[in-house]
Amino acid sequence: MLVPQGRFLAARAASLEAPPAQVLLGLPFDGTSSYKPGSRFAPAALRDVSHGLETFSYALQRDLDDLEIGDLGDLDLPFGNTTRALAMIRDAAALLMSHETLPLFIGGEHLVTLPIIEAVMERHPDLAVIHFDAHADLRDTYMGEPLSHATVMRRVAEQVGPGNLYQFGIRSGTRDEYAYGLAHTNFYPAALDQVSEVAGKLSGRPVYLSLDLDILDPGCFPGTGTPEPGGVSVAELLQALYSLSALQVVACDVVELSPPADPAAIAAIVAAKVVRELLLLTAHGAAG
After folding, report:
1. Are 11 and 92 in contact (CB under 8 A)?
2. For residue 121, what are the CA distances in angstroms to 93, 168, 200, 226, 233?
3. Which of 258, 255, 271, 15 minimizes the C-alpha distance to 112?
4. Which of 74, 117, 222, 286 could be 102's S-S partner, Cβ–Cβ 3.0 to 4.6 Å?
5. Average pLDDT for residues 192-209, to the nearest whole number?
6. What is the pLDDT of residue 94?
């Protein structure tokens, strides 16, 4: 079931059964958040502040008003039932992929990425995943749980094959996570300077982009559940995203905005601009 929400900037109402070329879907789930919960409020906050932005991007020279974008609202996810919530996300993502739309999912915590990728792989078994984050998310279990925001990329690597996971901006994790990343994934800690090089290698392949907003330094992005000092600037992140413009992005997510941690809504407006740029950036692939 979908819960109607105020729509994102320039988007129109849409349905899962007949989505337009590009769609937004909110995933208000933070059932495994371990430090500062609250990312379930992110989709609504992000939509609200988006109307403070223009529809036109100076950097991309594109305008949302020229695109066919739908906003599906939020999935009505059961609070306290992680297994059922993940199943509902997977079903919704599979339905969207069957319509050959290009979905952008708004979390919610990072665990929402796993069921989406499971669904996307049914259509694109040769999927490559690009992961922007402050945290490796490569633990095998966290507090005894294999399904967590701290284990999500380990589970993703198991789905797509570790060699198909590309991780950028990582600056936090356990010793074991760091070793696993170096040994088993395409691991680019701390910096974003190799994003364009990797993009060249992935030309022609279907790509899933997962963007954990805590890759940003908490000085410019305070509203997140697990802030990690020493991150990149908004300008640096956007430049890295622009370098992916030629890729065949088939789906993407933006996760880990936590509005309660940022009452001034600084992080929300940053997140809304990132979403706007991603919609414009991926529009060329919206026809499938």
Report:
1. no
2. 11, 21, 22, 29, 32
3. 255
4. 286
5. 96
6. 97
Residue count (the chain): 288
Cβ pair 212, 132 in contact under 8 A: yes
Are residues 247 and 196 in contact, defined by beta-carbon separation less than 8 angstroms? no
Query: 């690009």: which residue's tokens?
Result: 130
Structure confidence by residue, pLDDT tens digits, 212-266: 999 999 999 999 999 999 999 999 999 999 999 999 999 999 999 999 999 999 9
Tokens linked to 38: 């609250």
| CA–CA dist 79, 51 (Å, integer) | 28
Nearest to 27 by CA among 77, 101, 78: 77
Which positions ≥6 away from 259 have C-beta within 8 Å? 38, 41, 42, 45, 223, 265, 267, 268
Q: Which residues, other chains included, contact 42 with Cβ-Cβ below 8 Å and sequence gap of 6+? A: 26, 28, 106, 107, 108, 255, 256, 257, 258, 259, 268, 271
Cα→Cα distances 92→83, 118, 155, Å? 15, 11, 20
